[in-house]
Every structure is written in C-alpha cells, then in structure tokens.
C-alpha cells in the first residue's frame, strides 16, 4: 500500500498500456456523461436555445430593428411576447439576436483563450527552467498593459483590414448568390475575438502551469518519459487530460466574463453595431431601466442565466466524466 | 451711448425681494440658527478651479460660485452689475469703461481693483500659461493677440488699461456688440494675482493656488474643502459685497458621473439638485412629483454634421433630402423626452429677440424628389454611409430612431458606428468621417455664437463647407452695432445655411434636472450659469 | 527559497521596464491627446499647450526625461487632466480607499467562496452541493452593474438602512463591499469545488480515509492543500484587480477610489496618470504572482523552487 503522503500520488502501478488509453478515455467519458442527468439536461438546453436563437427569428419573421416610437416600452403581450423596448422594438427578437451574438462570442473567445492558455501553461510548466521564467514574465507583462488603450489601438490600426474583410464578404458570390451580404461587421467580430482572446488566456495559462507543476514529478509521467515518449506526446496525451478539471471549471467562468467584457468593448466601439445588440448590452441597458421596465432586464438576464446554468451543468458533468480516477469507483 | 440699466437691476432685486427680506440665517422653532446647506450634483470631477486653465461645465459652475466678473445676467438676459457697478460704451462701440464698486473685496479682505483685472488678463494672455480660452480675449481686444504671440512685450500697449484703482478701460479691435454677454464667461473673470505668485508663479498651469487652504476668490462663496471625487464644500463669503443677499450658508458640489447614481441619491435625500435625469425616470417624476422636475432652455443645437467633401454629401440635394425626411416632433416626444425643441433652423429661437425667418420644413415628398434627382431614386444605389457618434445611450437611441426614419421614408440604409470620445473628436477635427453627430453649446448668449461656427475654415466648422458671401456677411455683422441691423444680416446668413445645409439641425437642447421643492429662487441662464446668491433652501 | 525570491525580484526590473516603455509609446499612438476637445483649441494655443507640457519635444526625449524623473526622483509628473494635482498625489489619495474596500471585499469573497466551494465538493452531488453551486452560479449571473443598483434600491431606498452612495461612515462600506465580494466569492467557490473534487478522488485521500483519519483532517490537512492550487493561481491577478479598485462599483457607489482612474485616465489621454496607474498595477501583479508561486510550493512540498 502506498504511504500517506502526496509524494506517491497517484498509483504508480500503471502500465504503459494503461497510459495509452487515449481513445477509450473519451469513449468512457461520453458514456458517463450520458448517465449524468443534470449534464444531459444542460446540454439539451444549450443546444435547444442555440437552435431557437438561430431559427426562431427567421421562422417568426422577427425583426430586431423595426421600431414603433409611439408605442414605446410595453410589457409582455400577445403580440410582443417579451414586451418592447423604449423605441418600441420587439424584445424577443432583440434577445434572440443578442443571445446569438453573445453565445458565439462567449464560446469562440473562450475556446480561443482555452487553447492558447492550456498550451502555453502546459509548455511553460512542463519544460520549466529559463523558458518557464521567460514565458511567465511575458504573462506578467500582458497582464499589466492597459487593456483600454490596447483595444483602441487595435481598432485604429486594423480598421482598414476590417473593412476589407467586410467588403470582400459583401462581394463574395457563390453561383450568383451573395451569401454573406447580410454579414456586415464580421471583420469587427473577428477583431473582438482577438481582443478578448489576448487577455482571457492569461489566468488560464497560470492555472494550467500550476497544475502541471504539481503532477510533473509524478511517477506515471516519469514512467512515460523513461519509455522515451516525445515531450509533445507526454504533455498533450498524459498531462493535459489530468488537469482538465480546473480547465473546464475555469472555462465555464470565462464564458460569462467574456460576454460581459463584450459590452465594455462595445463601449469602445468594438463589437456589434447598433441597432443590433448583444446580451451584455441588453442587460446593461435593462439594469438602468429596471424600476420602470422590469422586462428589459428580466428577459435578457434570464436568457443569460439560463445559458450559464446549463453550460455549467454540462461543464460539471464533463468534468466528472473525464475524471479518470473517480471512474474507478 | 449705452448706459447701465439700473432699472433692470432693480427689477431683479424686486423679483427676489420676497426671499431677500428674511435674515440669511434661518432659525428653527427652538431659536437656534440652523445651517442652510444645499447639496448639488455637479457632473464630473472638476479639473481645477483656475478660470484661466479649465474648460468644462462643472468647472464653470464652481468658478461662478467662487468668483465674479465685471457684469452678470438676470433671468431675462439683461446685463446687470457685478464687480462693476456701472459702465459706459463709446459711441463707436470700441471703448468700454467699467467703474468698479468700492466694496468689492477678495476673500482675504483685499479690495478688487482695476489692476487686478488687467493683471489677470495679462496672465491669461501669457503664452507659457497656454490658457485654452485666451482667444476669447484676443479675438476682441486690441493688441491682445500681438501680446499673446510675443510681438509686443509691454502689456500697457494692449487695450486693457487701469485708469485708476476703480476704473477699467477696455479697447476693442472692432465693435463686438455682444461683448457684455461674452463677459459672463469665466475667461473674463479676475484671479487673485498675489496668491498665484506665492504658490507657483503666473505662467504655470500646475500650481497649488487653487487648493482650499490657499485659494482666494471674489465671489459669493469661498472654498472650504475639496475631497477629490467626493465633494467640494463652499461657504458664504464674509467679504463679498452683496453678502446680505446670499442666503444659503453652504453649497456642496458632488461630482457624480452616473445619472442613475445621482437619481438614487436624490431619492434617498442625499442631494437637493441633480445635474441630469435618467431618461426613463423623467416620466416617473413628472407623474409622481412634478414639483421636483425642472426643465430649462439650454442654448445649444444638437445636429448631424455632413462632410461635404465625401460622397454622397458633396451633393447638396442629398444633404437636404436627409434633413427634410426625419420626424423631429416624434423624436423629441418619444425618444429624447425632455421637451427639446425641434430644430428647423440654425439658431435657438428668441435668442435676445432673434427669430429665424427662413426655417425649413419637414417634407418627405420633396426629400424623395431631391434624392431621385441626385441619382438615388427610392434610395437605390445609395453608397455605404456611416454615421459616427460617441458612445452614449442618448446618442445611440437618437441615431437608431433616425436611421429607421431614413430607411422607411427614403429607402436609404445608414450604418451606425460608435467610438470612444477622443477618437471621435479626433475624427471630427481631422474631417475623417462622412456623417457625424455633433452638438454646440453657446459660451454666451448671442446669435453670433451660432453663426460664427460656419465661417470658412473655422476650427469648429469641420464640415469642409464654406461660402464667401456668408463670410462677408459675418464680418459686416461683427461691425454692426445696432442689433436690428445686425439681426437682419443674420437672417440672410441663415437663408444660405438652409439652402446649402452643411449640417442637419435636429433639436435645441434643454436642461432637465431634479430639484427638491425646498429649494427656492434657483434659476439658470440659457448658458447654464447659476447665480447662487438668489437661491434659498427651506430647512 | 530566498535565492528564488531574489532571482524573481531581479527579473522584475526588466519586466517593469518593458511594461513602462510599451505603455509610454502605446498611449502616444492612440488618436486624440490630452487637449483634444470638441471645441477645438486654436492652433496657437495648442502650440503653447504642447510647449507647457514638453509635448513639442521629440518622443524619445520625452521618454528619457520621464524615465529619469521616475527613477531618480520617484516623480510620476503632473496630471494633464487635473492641473493642480500630481500623479503621485492622486495615487496616494485614492489607493488607500481602494485598498480598504478591496481588502474587505477580499475577506468576504474568501470566506464565502471557500465555504461554499468546500461544502459543495465534500457533499458532491447532494442537495447541499446543488444549493452551494447554485448560489455561486447566481453570483456569476449577476454582474456588478446589476447587483449594485439592486442592493441600493433594496437597502438604501426601500429600507433606508444605509446611504445610497458615498464614502464617509463605516455603513457606507457595506453595499460596495458586498457587491464586489459576491462576484469574486462566486468565482472562488466554483474553482474551489473543481479543485477539491479533483483531489478528493485521488489515492492518497482514499488512503488517508482508509487509515481512519477523521473527515475534517482529511479535508483540511490533505484535500484543501491540493484543491486550492487553481484558486491560488486565480487569486494572484484577481487580488491585484480587487485591490486597485473597480470602475463600475466606484461609479455606482460614488467612491473616491483608484479604479475609476484606470479607466478615465485612458479616456482622458492623461498620459502621466495612465503610466502611474500602470506602474502601480504592474508592481502588484508581479508581486502577487511571485507570492502565488511561493504559496504553490508551500501547498505542494513536492515542488521545488527552481
């Protein structure tokens, strides 16, 4: 029996065959995930909500910009299920379009941050020494640079490329159809991902590095090394899966942060242009009017919460499912 | 010769007689005097309170509390005495002679003299100080520009002259019929030179003379304490000449940036007057506590600026089409909500009696015709146009509403683009935009402020528009001393503007605020000056 | 360990230098300057303004001059926006407020977050877990600009227990502290739960349990050590953020803290104030990340200072 000291975590009796459990790990995880009702529920809600956001406006001919100034802000009614905003625009349409943007921004930017942060942190932690020092000092520098100024610079210097992307998309024709014609502002969204991605990966990198350091000296890693596996294989095949727990949890925290960050960036002019809006800007707007027009906060806020709760159930389920050791119970 | 109208002064005195009869310090039932404190929401944290260094509105409110100029204004916009008890203007309108009152004092007890004014103006015109409002002096006063540019070094050669300690003479370059109104701007206010000398020198922007422990002013209130981003406390001045009229013992200026925070402070009784009202709250207060809402006229024009060098706005028909096709009434009633006045001309109505005779009208049919004539029937083929505005909820909803009106009325699609303030202003001054939101608030009350803007190459024109005939008229108006004749010239100028439409007027501003019914006798002028000495507050 | 810390402190010098230099030049390339105003400053006045602040000198000269003042005299220069105050004064006046609010909020966040997180992990997949996790999720779903006004409406306006805003008495600390603390508590709770779950299933914990160690001992002596790793990594930058103030909370509650200066100085193009706040923040970040690295070794004795 192993002694009671952290030095001997986890069982040293893994065979090389067990180390090479790559594919079965994912298959087992999927199996376990399906048995987790809460996670399944979360997953279904996320997918269902995404589909609603994408197709409902199209099916019900909802417009986020049609105004009725004389109508103004009205509470939910048969005509406007979630009510209207101060310009008399349908809040259901605005929420769905807004959620579409926010979900996309939240997921894509978080995944970007996840990819960069995990690889960066894993490499720094695993290689260690001088490289680690340099990489982590770069992280320190990135933390300290003034973000507002960085974003303004990004917009000023990339304004022309952004418009070039938009212009190209507008002209792009597939058998005579201008498929991307309605997608003005894509250049800006790409820039938004870059801006968010540039900051959100930093903490992820530090967390992953910390975890990697804590398992680096473990026997099964030593074993893998002694077997002559390449560093790349060791990092991404054996170490990263073992730090996935905190990674998933932190990613699930990055998503709301990113969605709210987007509303700050839209203040700087980066993000979606009016009259389109995102969940973040809708909630911000609703929070200023909640006493008079509660629905302006409650419904966008509800959509935001619903998404986050579901994503977190899914995330927790995923974490449990990927927990190799817990599964041995 | 124009003489100071003592009548108007008496009228004001009469107007406020009701309040001024009482003793300044109110007494409670028990007989102990209570301190009358008014707490005022003053927008953002002031940069400083040196009238020769600052440029903003919160600073303006503070400086007018702490110091006083030669003249002042009553609610009807008549000029009334300030430090000067009377004045004369020479028949050619070039020489102004001010007679200072004997009892005008600085807060340290020194008398306010004509030399103080001359030295203040000299300081303001010192190039090293780089006063942003120095042009207010050197655009009008003889020799001031030469002194500023270093062409003359002897200040005695300029048009500012102290004849004796109580007589100040100012000689102008050309008659500026609005000069007395312009003098209500704090650029014309005096500063206490010995104090500035003591704490850093006359040509330094960054000195400690405006700290509460050092500050010396000549206004109805003195600076007591200044906690940055928290509160600035001012107290009745014991040396102010008109101190008997001052009724409130202490005015606290709270720098509150967020209108919602301000409203919540007002509601919980932490503020007596707010700087603004959140849009959605205005209707609520009007319904529930109409006595707590004040909406005052504000001399400013909210407009959209065309860049006449960029397509499609190089075509006057397109500019006119956009200007004629929006529903300003609906915008004001449903979107901006604070009784703003729809603008179909270029100068706020009834400014010193000036009324536009050449206003245009909304006319959608005409707008469509113009657009078709310009080559965009039904909006077809209309190029991509970006409307630039600075990030603010109000600008956003106005732009969204107008965008929709153009889409419906003309078939024209305008995209909206918001930018952070300084990026937006930079784009404005470098004319790096097609179509841009703008606003112009008068520095002083006179139609000149609004006509001056559209002179060819004026630093604030920013449309690239210019018209030689317009410029000629502007200059002839400047040297016309009689207001009737001058306003007739303005009518011709406005006709040109309506025909060429270098900008698109939208509405004239108002200033909405929440005010506790306990506050009495508070009035503001159309350029947002508050003569605090007339105000009172119930305990 | 001392050698490790000494080496890291040495590394701080080039890092700060890079941050300072990059910021100095970044801010100069942003459109608009400190005197860009809607009402255009006339050209002759602008020239004088630039001369008054040495902005007419070549950029590298301004840079070396600034560096000299900072390094030799610790002088961060005068503020462009607030002419009668220096950057040193502004920071000295506002940092204590932010430190106080931040420290209080941090304590709240740690107590609340760790409790919720540990409870949720230990009672994994029971109703206790669900309650704790949902509480944490609610905290995440309520951004400060929603929670702050909600608290004010409830406690200041409807109940009248505290002031709507301000920073005078101890009672004024309650709402801002609660608003700021709750958000971080939610993050800490989620990360603690995740980290603990990771550890609780490991063999050494089972061994400890099998050997009859009490549950409390297992949790606090063994599990918490490993489980806190991600929280600690997160806390480095988070504490730096929390201590230097929050723009949203300071504007909602009218608090004279430093958080607003971080944002407003950039908007005002107040070059010296931007640099001053960045230097402060960078120092904190570097210091705290160093502290985190030390704590990590302390939590996990298998690690060595390298």
Main attributes?
heterotrimer; A: 329 residues; mainly alpha; 13 helices; 0% strand; disordered N terminus; C: mainly alpha
How are the elements arranged and paired?
The complex is a heterotrimer of chains A (329), B (539) and C (306).
Chain A: H1 16-19, H2 22-35, H3 37-59, H4 91-127, H5 129-144, H6 147-157, H7 159-171, H8 186-216, H9 219-226, H10 231-239, H11 244-267, H12 279-289, H13 295-322
Chain B: H1 6-15, H2 17-20, E1 37-41, H3 57-66, E2 71-73, E3 79-81, E4 84-89, E5 95-100, H4 114-124, H5 134-138, H6 144-149, E6 160-164, E7 167-171, H7 179-182, H8 193-198, E8 221-227, E9 231-236, E10 250-254, H9 259-267, H10 279-288, E11 293-306, H11 316-324, H12 328-336, E12 341-342, H13 364-373, E13 385-390, H14 393-410, E14 414-419, H15 421-429, E15 435-441, H16 448-452, H17 468-478, H18 483-500, E16 503-514, E17 519-520, E18 536-537
Parallel strand pairs in B: 1-10, 13-14, 13-15
Antiparallel strand pairs in B: 2-3, 4-5, 5-7, 6-7, 8-9, 9-10, 11-15, 11-16, 12-16, 17-18
Helix pairs in contact in B: 11-13, 17-18
Chain C: H1 2-29, H2 43-52, H3 59-73, H4 87-122, H5 127-141, H6 144-158, H7 174-200, H8 203-210, H9 215-227, H10 229-243, H11 247-253, H12 259-268, H13 271-299
Helix pairs in contact in C: 1-13, 4-5, 4-7, 4-13, 5-7, 6-7, 6-11, 7-9, 7-10, 8-9, 10-13, 11-12, 12-13
């Amino acid at each position: 029996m192993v002694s009671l000291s952290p030095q001997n975590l986890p069982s040293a009796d893994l065979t090389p065959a067990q180390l090479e459990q790559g594919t079965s790990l994912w298959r087992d995880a999927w199996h376990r995930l399906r048995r987790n009702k809460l996670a399944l529920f979360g997953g279904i809600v996320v997918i269902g909500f995404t589909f609603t956001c994408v197709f409902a406006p199209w099916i019900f001919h909802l417009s986020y910009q049609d105004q009725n100034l004389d109508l103004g802000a009205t509470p939910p009614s048969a005509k406007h299920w979630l009510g209207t905003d101060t310009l008399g625009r349908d809040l259901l349409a605005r929420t769905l379009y807004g959620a579409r943007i926010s979900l996309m921004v939240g997921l894509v930017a978080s995944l970007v941050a996840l990819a960069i942060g995990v690889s960066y942190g894993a490499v720094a932690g695993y290689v260690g020494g001088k490289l680690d020092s340099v990489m982590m000092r770069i992280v320190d520098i990135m933390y300290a640079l003034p973000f507002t100024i960085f974003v303004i610079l990004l917009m000023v210097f990339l304004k022309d490329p952004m418009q070039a992307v938009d212009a190209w998309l507008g002209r792009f024709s597939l058998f005579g159809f201008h498929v991307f014609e309605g997608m003005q502002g894509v250049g800006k969204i790409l820039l938004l991902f870059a801006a968010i991605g540039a900051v959100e990966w930093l903490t992820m990198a530090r967390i992953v590095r910390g975890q990697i350091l804590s398992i680096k000296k473990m026997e099964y890693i030593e074993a893998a090394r002694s077997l002559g596996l390449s560093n790349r294989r060791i990092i991404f095949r054996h170490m990263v899966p073992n730090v996935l727990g905190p990674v998933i949890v932190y990613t699930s925290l990055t998503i709301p942060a990113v969605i709210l960050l987007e509303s700050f960036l839209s203040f700087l002019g980066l993000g979606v242009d009016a009259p389109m809006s995102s969940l973040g800007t809708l909630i911000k707007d609703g929070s200023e009017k909640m006493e008079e027009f509660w629905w302006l906060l409650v419904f966008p806020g509800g959509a935001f919460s619903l998404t986050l709760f579901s994503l977190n159930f899914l995330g927790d389920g995923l974490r449990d499912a990927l927990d190799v050791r817990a599964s041995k119970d | 010769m124009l003489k100071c109208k003592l009548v108007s002064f008496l009228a004001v005195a009469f107007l406020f007689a009701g309040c001024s009869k009482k003793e300044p310090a109110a007494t409670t039932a028990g007989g102990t005097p209570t301190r009358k404190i008014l707490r005022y929401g003053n927008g953002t944290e002031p940069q400083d309170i040196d009238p020769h260094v600052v440029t903003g509105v919160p600073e303006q409110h503070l400086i007018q509390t702490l110091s006083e100029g030669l003249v002042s204004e009553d609610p009807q916009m008549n000029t009334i005495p300030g430090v000067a008890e009377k004045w004369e203007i020479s028949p050619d309108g070039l020489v102004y002679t001010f007679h200072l009152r004997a009892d005008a004092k600085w807060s340290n007890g020194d008398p306010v003299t004509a030399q103080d004014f001359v030295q203040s103006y000299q300081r303001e015109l010192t190039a090293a100080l780089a006063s942003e409002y120095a042009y207010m002096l050197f655009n009008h006063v003889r020799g001031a520009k030469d002194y500023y540019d270093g062409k003359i070094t002897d200040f005695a050669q300029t048009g500012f002259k102290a004849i004796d300690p109580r007589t100040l003479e100012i000689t102008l370059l050309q008659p500026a019929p609005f000069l007395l109104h312009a003098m209500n701007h704090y650029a014309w206010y005096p500063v206490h030179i010995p104090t500035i000398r003591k704490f850093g020198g006359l040509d330094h922007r960054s000195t400690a003379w405006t700290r509460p422990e050092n500050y010396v002013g000549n206004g109805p209130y003195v600076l007591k304490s200044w906690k940055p981003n928290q509160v600035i406390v001012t107290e009745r001045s014991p040396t102010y000449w008109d101190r008997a009229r001052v009724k409130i013992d202490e005015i606290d200026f709270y720098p509150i940036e967020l209108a919602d925070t301000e409203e919540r402070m007002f509601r919980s009784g932490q503020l007596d007057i707010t700087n603004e009202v959140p849009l959605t709250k205005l209707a609520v207060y009007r319904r529930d506590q109409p006595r707590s809402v004040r909406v005052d006229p504000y001399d400013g024009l909210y407009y959209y600026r065309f860049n006449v060098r960029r397509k499609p706005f190089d075509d006057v028909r397109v500019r006119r089409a956009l200007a004629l096709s929006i529903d300003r009434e609906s915008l004001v009633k449903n979107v901006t909500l604070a009784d703003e006045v729809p603008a179909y001309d270029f100068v706020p109505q009834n400014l010193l009696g000036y009324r536009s005779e050449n206003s245009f009208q909304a006319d959608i049919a005409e707008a469509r015709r113009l657009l078709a004539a310009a080559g965009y029937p039904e909006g077809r083929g209309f190029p991509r146009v970006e409307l630039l505005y600075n990030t603010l909820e109000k600008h956003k909803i106005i732009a969204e509403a107008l965008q929709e009106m153009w889409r419906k009325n003309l078939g024209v699609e305008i995209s909206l683009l918001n930018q952070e303030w300084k990026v937006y202003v930079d784009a404005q001054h470098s004319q790096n935009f097609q179509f841009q939101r703008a606003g112009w608030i008068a520095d002083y009350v006179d139609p000149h402020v609004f006509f001056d803007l559209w002179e060819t190459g004026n630093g604030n024109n920013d449309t690239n528009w210019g018209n030689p005939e317009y410029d000629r008229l502007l200059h002839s108006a400047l040297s016309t001393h009689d207001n009737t004749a001058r306003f007739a010239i303005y009518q011709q100028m406005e006709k040109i503007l309506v025909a060429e439409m270098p900008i698109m007027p939208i509405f004239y501003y108002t200033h909405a605020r929440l005010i506790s019914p306990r506050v009495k006798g508070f009035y503001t002028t159309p350029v947002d000056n508050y003569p605090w000495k007339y105000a009172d507050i119930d305990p | 360990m001392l050698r490790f810390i000494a080496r890291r402190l040495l590394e701080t010098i080039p890092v700060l230098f890079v941050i300072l230099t990059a910021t100095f030049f970044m801010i100069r390339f942003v459109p608009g300057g400190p005197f860009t105003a809607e009402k255009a400053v006339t050209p002759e006045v602008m020239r004088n303004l630039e001369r008054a602040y040495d902005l007419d000198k070549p950029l590298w000269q301004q840079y070396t001059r600034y560096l000299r003042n900072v390094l030799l005299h610790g002088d961060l220069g005068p503020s462009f926006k607030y002419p009668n105050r220096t950057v040193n004064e502004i920071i000295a006046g506002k940092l204590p407020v932010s430190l106080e609010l931040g420290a209080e909020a941090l304590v709240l966040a740690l107590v609340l977050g760790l409790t919720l997180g540990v409870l949720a992990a230990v009672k994994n997949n029971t109703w206790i877990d669900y309650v704790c996790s949902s509480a944490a999720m609610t905290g995440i779903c309520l951004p400060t600009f929603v929670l702050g006004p909600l608290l004010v409406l409830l406690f200041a306006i409807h109940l009248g227990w505290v002031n709507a805003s301000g920073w005078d008495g101890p009672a004024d600390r309650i709402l801002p502290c609660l608003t700021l603390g709750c958000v971080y508590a939610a993050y800490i709770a989620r990360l603690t739960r995740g980290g603990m779950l990771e550890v609780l299933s490991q063999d050494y914990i089972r061994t400890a349990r099998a050997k009859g160690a009490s549950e409390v001992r297992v949790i606090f002596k063994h599990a918490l050590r490993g489980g806190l790793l991600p929280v600690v990594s997160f806390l480095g930058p988070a504490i730096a953020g929390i201590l230097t103030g929050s723009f949203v909370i300071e504007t909602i509650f009218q608090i004279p803290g430093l958080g607003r200066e971080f944002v407003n100085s950039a908007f005002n193009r107040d070059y010296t104030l931007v640099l001053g706040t960045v230097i402060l923040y960078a120092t904190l970040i570097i210091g705290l990340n160093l502290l985190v690295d030390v704590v990590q070794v302390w939590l996990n004795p298998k690690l060595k200072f390298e």
